[in-house]
Amino acid sequence: MPDSRRPTMLWPGKCNVKLSQGERRLCDLSAAKNGQDSRRVQFGDFSQLMQELRLEDEGSFYNYLRMEPAMFDELLQRVGPRITKRETSWRQSLEPGLKLAVSLRFLATGDKYPTLQYQYRVARNTISKFVPEVCRAIRKEYKNEVMTCPRTSQECQAVAEDFKKRWNVPRACGAIDGKHVAMRCPPNTGTLYHNYKGFLSVVLLALVDANYKFLWADVELKQCLDEASIYFPDPEPLPNDDTDTPYFFLGDDAFGLRTYMMKQYSVKGLNKEQRIFNYRISRVRRVVENAFGILAQRLQLLLTTMQLLPAVVQDVLEGCICLHNLMRDRYPALQDAALDQEDENHNLIPGEWRQEANMHEVEQDVVRTGFDAVGTDKHAVVTHVDCKDGMDVDQF
């Protein structure tokens, strides 16, 4: 006999089926979920606006997601299997294309989750779950392909050869700099993430090659610099010289002058050769400044205050860098217009990113040691090789 203490009610349309309150609640939730799915298809941006832009205006599609439709399709094909969830008897999983579109829109604009919820008809708590998953999937799928850090002597020499050919600076294995990425205060952290600029942030320290691509960008880089555990090729003489010159990174005044770190002279009253040296180094260092600039111009989440936890911020940053390098490989001409240029008199023409992006410069917590004996010798050697007799700065 049925339990008389069990509350029952009739499900509308099925008069012979008796359901408990819990079963009725689950049926109501299922019906509501089906209604949300239908409205998502009928009114959501993924099913309506994006399809319209793809078919009628590819330029607006690029502006909407910061990438071409073909690039979106490639991402979906390769990342889709990593973000696809299993169907269950209670609900249908979100399609991977929708997850990818919401995540890219979030990175491109920095819109808050409630805003994306109304645009795509996806609950904001659901968005907060899959956005980090999509960023991690992009990193796992593309990092080894588009972001290869030089770890052997041959790889370092290849990077240095690119700098020599494109920027006329030998022995440079990369330009290094950092950026403050603002975020809200994580719980129970006090002033741990408070910086000297007066806001909370995490520091993105990055190494960039001669083609504006990120070679290395994570906390491991700072640790390797502090411990001097980076293995450069053995020093060897420059052309027309018999003095061994080490390989090095190019940094600014935030970094101490080491055997592996080259920076400009920071004193006044420089002679001609020293001014030529400073011009050459500062011109090469614009590579890393422009890399950060076009990264933030394309993915403007980096210009906002992220409402995310530090671990999620790290996932998002790595996903952004992989997307930047991927676009540099696939469509380099799309970003070249935003880069700094020089006129015929070697005067700087600021790139578009300097007008459109509000970048935060970084001062690293590295002890400034000034000019030691090895550093002074390095400056002299490079100046001796690069500055022939009778040459002026305008000739470079």
Describe it for me?
- The chain is an alpha+beta fold and 396 residues long.
- It contains 14 helices and eleven strands.
- The strands form four sheets. It has a five-stranded mixed β-sheet, with helices on both faces.
- Helix 5 crosses helix 7, helix 6 packs across helix 7 and helix 7 packs across helix 11.
- It is elongated.
How is the topology of this model organized?
Blueprint: E1 9-11, E2 14-19, H1 21-43, H2 49-56, H3 58-65, H4 69-83, H5 96-109, H6 113-120, H7 124-146, H8 153-167, E3 172-182, E4 201-208, E5 214-217, H9 219-227, E6 236-237, E7 244-245, E8 248-250, E9 261-262, H10 272-298, H11 310-330, H12 333-336, E10 341-342, E11 348-349, H13 352-356, H14 373-386
Parallel strand pairs: 3-8, 8-9
Antiparallel strand pairs: 1-2, 3-4, 4-5, 6-7, 10-11
